[in-house]
Amino acid sequence: MTGLGRAAALARAICEVPAPPFAEERRAAYLSELWCSAGLSPSLDATGNLLAEVTGGTGPRVVLAAHLDTVFGEDTDVTVREAGGRWHAPGLGDNSSSLAVLTALAEEIAAGEPTPRPRLLLAATVGEEGLGDLRGAKALVRELSHDIDAFVAVDGHLGGVIDRALGSVRFEAEYRGPGGHSWGDRGTPSAVHAIGEAIHALTRVDLPRSPASSLNVGIVRGGTGVNAIAETASCVVDVRSVEQSELLRLAGEAERRVRSIARRHGLEVRLTRVGERQAASVENESLAAAAERALRSVGVGPRRAASSTDANAAMVAGVPALCFGVYRGGDAHRKSEWIEPESLELGLAALRALLRELSAW
Q1: Any idea which fold 167-277 has?
Q2: What is the pLDDT of residues 333-348, one digit of tens each?
Q3: Where are the alpha helices (DSSP H) in the chain?
Q4: Model confidence over 111-155: pLDDT tens digits?
Q5: CATH assignment, 6-165+279-359
Q6: Do 117 and 355 touch, CB atoms closer than 8 A?
Q7: Phi-psi region of 209 (alpha: psi -120 to 50; beta: other; left: phi over 0)
Q8: Contact (Cβ atoms closer than 8 angstroms) between residue 7 and residue 101
Q9: For residue 271, what are the β-bridge partners?
Q10: Predicted TM-score (pTM) of this structure
């Protein structure tokens, strides 16, 4: 296979260091070694983010951030396999490839390239995925929002320019009742029956075409045995929208339906918010235009979109921000995830071009 370079080798190596949700320490330590070898002096902040100031550069101060964590648990096999010109492994694209491109860039800077470039802070963040709720990016922005001019999350597919923050509300709904024997206590309300009805009711929530919105039940738990009336059952709900007012309306409607079903079944219900990311936009047109020029300069057509990334935290704080994709691949958040390894060199070239644009931004 032709076209492979340092970034592809780094992606393979990084992917094979597990980084499950809330357990990113091993990967952070490995990135720290790589960045030290590149001449940086990385350190961990109180949240677990790996940070490294880059000497030199002119113009604005820019954060380049790529998240450490994946959606996969500790027991997932993350060995990279090659087949049909593609590389396959859980988390290989999201976000090992982005970390690899960021690290390859750090190595180039240590060697005197690319120039010109803005003043840079490199960040490998924790808690971007799932119930991590952007804890790393939120902490970083709280600490630095007064001292940065732009925030670029390095994440996603090549050509992607995420210039709007998709919001989400996540809550766990848990039903509780007396439970009992499926025959001897027949007629006693079942938490599992109620959770099933609640999930059906949630799928009937009317989602608008505009603003774009979604609702998903991603986790269901409950019951102890086939002949037991369930004492407890729960589900975790994810509501999303590109508009904050619509997000709050839909989340409120979802919670109302869950409570209504609890009353009908005569069960207790507990609703717990487990994540919240605000929908937001910020004055970032010139930043997005710079990203588009950078992509076109390397022959890649840009695509603007809204999504939920580390850049959300900066947008909510009013910092110009976007997310910039640097690889080609597919099946993100699936064990069948794959990348085109040669695309990372193109992604690295696009990131170089973005730095040139931002040096005079």
Answers
A1: Alpha-Beta Plaits (3.30.70)
A2: 999 999 999 999 999 9
A3: 6-15, 25-37, 98-110, 135-144, 191-203, 244-265, 285-297, 311-316, 343-359
A4: 887 789 999 999 999 999 989 999 999 999 999 989 999 999 999
A5: 3.40.630.10
A6: yes
A7: alpha
A8: yes
A9: 173
A10: 0.93
